[in-house]
Amino acid sequence: MKPLHLILTSLFLSLSIPSFAQQTGGDTNNGDTTEAGDEESNATESTGPRRFWQASLSEGHYMVALDRISTISMHEYLLDGGLVVTEVTVDTAGRALTRFYHIEPITDAGGRDEVSRVVDRGRELLDRAGQKAGTDAHDMAQKSYPATTHAGTIEYRIIDKRDLDSLYNSLRKSWETGKGRKLTIK
Protein backbone atom coordinates (compact mmCIF):
# COMPACT_ATOMS: atom_id res chain seq x y z
CA MET A 1 0.00 0.00 0.00
CA LYS A 2 1.29 3.47 -0.85
CA PRO A 3 2.10 5.88 1.96
CA LEU A 4 -0.61 8.47 2.48
CA HIS A 5 1.65 11.39 1.52
CA LEU A 6 2.31 9.87 -1.94
CA ILE A 7 -1.39 9.35 -2.53
CA LEU A 8 -2.21 12.89 -1.42
CA THR A 9 0.63 14.35 -3.53
CA SER A 10 -0.56 12.47 -6.61
CA LEU A 11 -4.14 13.56 -6.01
CA PHE A 12 -3.10 17.21 -5.51
CA LEU A 13 -1.02 17.17 -8.70
CA SER A 14 -3.86 15.51 -10.57
CA LEU A 15 -6.25 18.20 -9.38
CA SER A 16 -3.95 21.00 -10.48
CA ILE A 17 -3.38 19.77 -14.00
CA PRO A 18 -5.78 20.25 -16.91
CA SER A 19 -6.52 17.43 -19.27
CA PHE A 20 -7.10 17.53 -22.96
CA ALA A 21 -7.85 14.87 -25.55
CA GLN A 22 -4.69 13.37 -26.95
CA GLN A 23 -4.23 13.49 -30.69
CA THR A 24 -1.06 13.35 -32.71
CA GLY A 25 -0.24 16.51 -34.66
CA GLY A 26 0.65 16.15 -38.32
CA ASP A 27 3.70 17.41 -40.11
CA THR A 28 3.90 20.98 -41.27
CA ASN A 29 4.51 22.05 -44.84
CA ASN A 30 7.21 24.38 -46.17
CA GLY A 31 5.04 27.48 -46.63
CA ASP A 32 5.79 30.78 -44.95
CA THR A 33 3.07 30.49 -42.32
CA THR A 34 1.32 27.23 -41.59
CA GLU A 35 -0.68 25.51 -38.96
CA ALA A 36 1.84 23.30 -37.23
CA GLY A 37 -0.03 20.02 -36.95
CA ASP A 38 -3.71 19.31 -36.51
CA GLU A 39 -6.28 21.94 -37.36
CA GLU A 40 -7.20 21.64 -33.65
CA SER A 41 -3.68 22.63 -32.57
CA ASN A 42 -3.06 26.14 -31.26
CA ALA A 43 0.42 26.17 -32.82
CA THR A 44 1.39 28.13 -35.92
CA GLU A 45 4.75 27.98 -37.64
CA SER A 46 6.50 30.57 -39.78
CA THR A 47 9.90 31.27 -41.26
CA GLY A 48 12.28 32.27 -38.50
CA PRO A 49 15.75 33.77 -38.31
CA ARG A 50 18.31 31.91 -40.38
CA ARG A 51 20.08 29.10 -38.48
CA PHE A 52 17.76 29.35 -35.45
CA TRP A 53 14.65 27.59 -34.18
CA GLN A 54 12.46 29.49 -31.77
CA ALA A 55 9.27 28.98 -29.81
CA SER A 56 7.00 31.72 -28.57
CA LEU A 57 4.78 30.46 -25.75
CA SER A 58 2.38 32.07 -23.31
CA GLU A 59 4.93 31.69 -20.50
CA GLY A 60 8.06 32.78 -22.38
CA HIS A 61 10.28 32.45 -25.43
CA TYR A 62 12.98 29.97 -26.39
CA MET A 63 15.56 30.26 -29.16
CA VAL A 64 18.39 27.90 -30.09
CA ALA A 65 21.01 27.86 -32.84
CA LEU A 66 20.39 24.81 -35.02
CA ASP A 67 24.09 23.94 -35.18
CA ARG A 68 24.26 23.85 -31.34
CA ILE A 69 21.57 21.15 -30.99
CA SER A 70 23.10 17.76 -30.21
CA THR A 71 19.93 15.71 -29.61
CA ILE A 72 16.18 16.05 -29.51
CA SER A 73 13.75 13.50 -28.14
CA MET A 74 10.09 12.95 -27.42
CA HIS A 75 9.09 10.39 -24.83
CA GLU A 76 6.46 9.51 -22.23
CA TYR A 77 6.82 8.38 -18.64
CA LEU A 78 4.73 7.81 -15.54
CA LEU A 79 5.41 10.26 -12.72
CA ASP A 80 4.69 9.28 -9.11
CA GLY A 81 2.27 6.60 -10.30
CA GLY A 82 -0.47 9.10 -11.08
CA LEU A 83 0.65 11.37 -13.92
CA VAL A 84 1.55 10.67 -17.54
CA VAL A 85 4.23 13.10 -18.78
CA THR A 86 4.97 13.53 -22.49
CA GLU A 87 8.22 15.41 -22.85
CA VAL A 88 10.29 16.92 -25.66
CA THR A 89 13.91 17.58 -24.70
CA VAL A 90 16.48 19.67 -26.54
CA ASP A 91 20.10 19.06 -25.62
CA THR A 92 22.68 21.54 -26.88
CA ALA A 93 26.43 21.98 -26.95
CA GLY A 94 25.90 24.58 -24.20
CA ARG A 95 25.12 23.81 -20.58
CA ALA A 96 21.32 24.08 -20.67
CA LEU A 97 18.85 21.24 -21.22
CA THR A 98 15.43 22.37 -22.39
CA ARG A 99 12.23 20.49 -21.57
CA PHE A 100 8.82 21.10 -23.11
CA TYR A 101 6.23 18.90 -21.47
CA HIS A 102 2.56 18.00 -21.26
CA ILE A 103 1.10 16.39 -18.13
CA GLU A 104 -2.16 14.57 -17.68
CA PRO A 105 -3.51 12.50 -14.81
CA ILE A 106 -3.48 8.79 -15.48
CA THR A 107 -7.23 8.85 -14.80
CA ASP A 108 -7.62 10.84 -18.04
CA ALA A 109 -5.60 8.32 -20.02
CA GLY A 110 -8.04 5.58 -18.99
CA GLY A 111 -11.81 5.52 -18.70
CA ARG A 112 -13.97 8.08 -16.91
CA ASP A 113 -15.10 7.13 -13.43
CA GLU A 114 -15.82 8.68 -10.02
CA VAL A 115 -12.14 9.59 -9.52
CA SER A 116 -12.17 11.53 -12.79
CA ARG A 117 -15.21 13.49 -11.66
CA VAL A 118 -13.45 14.40 -8.41
CA VAL A 119 -10.36 15.47 -10.38
CA ASP A 120 -12.51 17.61 -12.69
CA ARG A 121 -14.17 19.30 -9.71
CA GLY A 122 -10.76 19.99 -8.17
CA ARG A 123 -9.61 21.61 -11.42
CA GLU A 124 -12.65 23.89 -11.40
CA LEU A 125 -11.82 25.03 -7.87
CA LEU A 126 -8.18 25.67 -8.78
CA ASP A 127 -9.24 27.61 -11.88
CA ARG A 128 -11.47 29.84 -9.77
CA ALA A 129 -8.71 30.42 -7.21
CA GLY A 130 -6.27 31.29 -10.01
CA GLN A 131 -8.72 33.77 -11.52
CA LYS A 132 -9.14 35.49 -8.16
CA ALA A 133 -5.37 35.64 -7.66
CA GLY A 134 -4.80 36.91 -11.21
CA THR A 135 -2.57 34.00 -12.26
CA ASP A 136 -3.01 31.05 -14.60
CA ALA A 137 -1.22 28.23 -12.80
CA HIS A 138 -2.06 25.77 -15.61
CA ASP A 139 0.38 27.52 -17.96
CA MET A 140 3.27 27.44 -15.52
CA ALA A 141 5.94 24.75 -15.27
CA GLN A 142 5.36 22.52 -12.24
CA LYS A 143 8.31 22.25 -9.84
CA SER A 144 8.87 21.01 -6.33
CA TYR A 145 11.94 22.51 -4.68
CA PRO A 146 14.55 21.02 -4.47
CA ALA A 147 13.57 17.80 -6.27
CA THR A 148 12.71 19.34 -9.66
CA THR A 149 14.68 22.58 -9.58
CA HIS A 150 17.91 22.02 -11.47
CA ALA A 151 20.48 24.56 -12.56
CA GLY A 152 20.84 24.53 -16.32
CA THR A 153 17.32 23.23 -17.00
CA ILE A 154 14.88 25.36 -18.96
CA GLU A 155 11.28 24.16 -18.69
CA TYR A 156 8.05 25.02 -20.48
CA ARG A 157 4.68 23.45 -19.87
CA ILE A 158 2.51 22.82 -22.92
CA ILE A 159 -1.17 22.53 -22.05
CA ASP A 160 -2.44 20.75 -25.19
CA LYS A 161 -0.61 17.58 -26.26
CA ARG A 162 -1.33 18.37 -29.91
CA ASP A 163 0.72 21.56 -29.50
CA LEU A 164 3.60 19.51 -28.05
CA ASP A 165 3.42 17.19 -31.07
CA SER A 166 3.51 20.24 -33.37
CA LEU A 167 6.47 21.66 -31.45
CA TYR A 168 8.45 18.44 -31.85
CA ASN A 169 7.63 18.19 -35.56
CA SER A 170 8.68 21.81 -36.14
CA LEU A 171 11.91 21.38 -34.20
CA ARG A 172 12.78 18.09 -35.92
CA LYS A 173 12.15 19.44 -39.42
CA SER A 174 14.07 22.65 -38.73
CA TRP A 175 17.06 20.72 -37.37
CA GLU A 176 17.02 18.21 -40.24
CA THR A 177 16.82 20.88 -42.96
CA GLY A 178 18.92 23.56 -41.25
CA LYS A 179 16.21 26.13 -42.00
CA GLY A 180 15.20 28.55 -39.25
CA ARG A 181 11.60 28.32 -38.05
CA LYS A 182 9.46 30.03 -35.45
CA LEU A 183 6.65 28.20 -33.69
CA THR A 184 4.00 30.20 -31.85
CA ILE A 185 1.56 28.59 -29.43
CA LYS A 186 -1.32 30.83 -28.36
Describe what this molecule looks like in 3D.
With 186 residues, the protein is α+β, with helices and mostly antiparallel strands. It has one domain (4-185). The chain is 28% helix and 32% strand. It is built from four helices and nine strands, in the order αβββββββααβαβ. The chain has helices at residues 4-15, 106-109, 114-133, 161-177; strands at 33-35, 43-47, 52-57, 60-65, 69-79, 83-92, 97-105, 153-157, 181-185. The protein has a five-stranded mixed beta sheet with strand order 1-2-9-3-4, covered by helices on one side. The longest helix is centred in the middle third of the chain and has 20 residues, at 114-133. It is globular and about 45 Å long.
Give the arrangement of secondary structure elements:
Blueprint: H1 4-15, E1 33-35, E2 43-47, E3 52-57, E4 60-65, E5 69-79, E6 83-92, E7 97-105, H2 106-109, H3 114-133, E8 153-157, H4 161-177, E9 181-185
Parallel strand pairs: 3-9, 7-8
Antiparallel strand pairs: 1-2, 2-9, 3-4, 5-6, 6-7
Assess the beta-strand content as a share of residues: 25-35%
What strand line-up does the widest sheet have?
A: 1-2-9-3-4
Tell me the count of domains: 1
What's the rounded overall pLDDT mean?
74
Helical proportion, percent range: 25-40%
How would a textbook summarize the main sheet?
5 strands, mixed
Compute the gyration radius: what is it? 17 Å
Helix count from the secondary structure assignment: 4
